[in-house]
Amino acid sequence: MSDLAGGTVRVDRSAAFRANGVWSREGTLPFPLSFHATSAGGVHSVDATAASISELVDLLAAHARGQALVLNVSTNDWLDGDYQQLPLGRIAEEQGVAAEVHDIRWAATRHMSDDLLVMPWSRMPRLLGGWYPYDIEILDVAGPLTSAEVEELVLTVNTHNVGKAPILPVLANASLWFSGHDDCYFSLETTSAELPPLLLARLLAAQAGAALIEAADPAGTREDAVVMVPQPPAGLAAELLGIGGHWVGTVAQVQAGEQVTLALAPTNARWRVADWLPDVMPHELTLDVVAGTWSHRLS
Q1: What is the pTM of this model?
Q2: Same domain, 156 and 210
Q3: Alpha-carbon radius of gyration of the chain
Q4: Which of 149, 183, 217 is at the close of a domain?
Q5: pLDDT digits (tens, 9 = 90+) for 185-241
Q6: What residues are paired with 176 via a beta bridge?
Q7: CB–CB of 80/165 below 8 Å?
Q8: Where on the tree of life does the source sit, at the highest rank (predicted)?
Q9: Rounded to whole angstroms, how far apart are CA atoms 240 and 236?
Q10: What are the residues facing 129 on neighbouring strands?
Q11: At 221, phi and psi to the nearest 5?
């Protein structure tokens, strides 16, 4: 067993591991952590649960090249008097965020937004603050785009057969693609080999934080409950990904304010909602809240 230290992550009641659940015969169960990572041709792909874009945007921004392109957004949080979703440009205006706005109604989008936004990544946290898109796609592009480049990119994204082949190789000037669904599932492609371990480390911290909130306030009476969770370093996550690219994890034990143990297991395939978790989950990751350290033990 080796102790490992990392940074700090803020986790509150809106965290995907707290706010969403999986229906089962027993009722609604917390989402397990699931992580499916592959690499081919310089593109690193991740499919995972559970996190919303708001919980990950700082990591994406840190590995971006300057401009975020936001499209295919659906939300129930920004509606007009006829209960129709407001355009993204109007949402950005209401959030006090300056952005380029492009009309893409011609592109037959899969979702409800008929426009897209282009802005520096530094403005993304403010854009996303206080609301939840249940569908969203974001691309990282090298710099400002012409209208023709935007049209070509949108056409490529909205005609691509998602899940059949990576999208980055057919997108000019894009180094990252993110797709979030239902505030818990996400898929990502990146040209950065450093990002997948950081994403796994973030999910581990988020799952531990959600467990700590639940243990401290099981009745859910504290809507403002927040915990600051030491994040396991990327080295621990990279160690796990060196064992295998497919993982599932659940909370094994929690002591409010003191300790959380997560149980993880490598799997042979990507986890899906209908799948049972393995009977044996031999990798134990324990967060010592007081000491601010993580340890990894193989049982």
Answers
A1: 0.92
A2: no
A3: 19
A4: 183
A5: 999 999 999 999 999 999 999 999 999 998 888 777 787 889 999 999 899 999 999
A6: 140, 190
A7: no
A8: Bacteria
A9: 6
A10: none
A11: -85, -15
